[in-house]
Amino acid sequence: MKSKFHPDKNGYYGQFGGAFIPELLYPNVKELEDNYIQIINSDEFQKEYKALLKDYVGRPSPLYLAKRLSEKYNAFIYLKREDLNHTGAHKVNNTIGQILVAKKLGKTKIIAETGAGQHGVATATVCALMGLECTVFMGEKDIERQAPNVARMKMLGAKVIPALSGSKTLKDATNEAIRYWIQHPETFYLIGSVVGPHPYPDMVARLQAVISEEIKWQLKEKTGKENPDTIIACVGGGSNAAGAFYHYMDDEDVELIAVEASGLGVNSGESAATSQLGEVGIIHGSKTILMQDEYGQIVEPYSISAGLDYPGVGPLHAYLFDSKRATFMNATDKEALTAAYELTKIEGIIPALESAHALAVLSKITFKKDQVVVVNLSGRGDKDLETYIKHLED
After folding, report:
1. Residue 135's pLDDT is what?
2. Which site among 230, 240, 327, 335 is 20 to 30 Å from 27 CA-CA?
3. Residues annotated catalytic, as ranges
4. pLDDT confidence of residue 8
């Protein structure tokens, strides 16, 4: 599928993307770049990938009409239930695909970074499934606030290495993973979002595109039309949003809304609203929009949500923002918590804190009568129960 929102041969979405990497990593990235599309498009890969998504992950994930939520906001609000996937989030769509690519390339040792722990769990899961060695880097702060996911990773046989520098969150875990990769180039770096050097952003988007592929036929089945009026998804690095937007990016009739975490407020100094606070720069191997000071040093992000606590966005999202194809909104910690409690009480679904940010903007939009809205419910809230309980007591 040709699209102006796909990268060019050098891995650029407009001015964003590319591969800014140390020379030692060039062979790894070049090997992947030369082979990933051919591998993913092969009949052998597609057969195994689709079988695992169906029988192991539990896809297709349901597209659920949230009736009480719809009544409240005077629109038809559908939830794409990625929270019902095995491992509890959308992340496994990507890890299943990348582990098959890694095996095809003859890799036996896998490394990954994780923030909320969902990608770490999903990576540890597929490594256990395929019998491969797994090392996950995670910020010390995230290890403390996402203890259940750390326990899952260890149960699955992964080694979890804390990142002790900086804010001790996702950015720092990624830094540590890249350092390790440089020292151990024989490993395969299984990146969790649409970030990093080309071809990672494109490969991850292609693997997550199963989300929008399903939305198209599921919506047609339910409404007679493939296209919703609006798609809403949260954005940190942005893989769940890339997946939800993928098959709709060229259709200007479909409104795309990306929701960032504004923490304690966009201008509070404690925020992760990259599109509002960021400038063009380079982070983790690609040119994108990121939060930085006048000297080009990364500004530490903040969000109650570990998965959105990242100082940049993937280059695809930077291009969607820059080209105005997607509307970027944001939600504070408080707004996300309110939205999470609301969904729980009126639909009986506890969302991940990341997904709660997407739900939070429903109250900020005036919908037209009969507007069809799809919210990508990217993960379930089990991992965030400690945070929810703490704020319930408040």
Report:
1. 98
2. 240
3. 91, 113, 378
4. 96
